[in-house]
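Bug #77: duplicate submission created two jobs. Keeping one. Sequence:
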Amino acid sequence: MTIESANPDIQLRASTGYVDVDIAYGGGFKSSTVEYRESSSDIGFITLVGQTERVADQSRGIQIGFYDSITPGQYLLPAEAFPKNYYCRYFTQNGDHRMSYEAIDGTLTIESFNREQAFATGKFSFNAKIDDSAPRELFVGTFDIRWVDDEKN
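Kept job's structure:
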């Protein structure tokens, strides 16, 4: 199943899975909505998103991105200079306004990834600076996101 995107370069797929965050700013959380997105151009970039249910039009989540040539392994955050080939971010969503806080240090571990079958699993542990006057915040969790195969449903 493909979901239409406002950006023709992005292919959204009906997705299933989870992002479970054990340690986070404001307390751990579990995603109620996940997305597996793939750029459809020659870029070959995968974006995974796990977001909490909106309460009073507010939610939070984790976004993970990497090139489709990534192999299982542990990757230091943030990625080295251009081309940036992977990242982790914590975000807050208030209505249509999203604030993202990118990892300033930590690790992204890809345990399994298969572009053809559209799934990725792994874990993350990173620090992000939420408030310039406060110390950095730790985020630790796991993810397993895959597209839904219409032929099996």
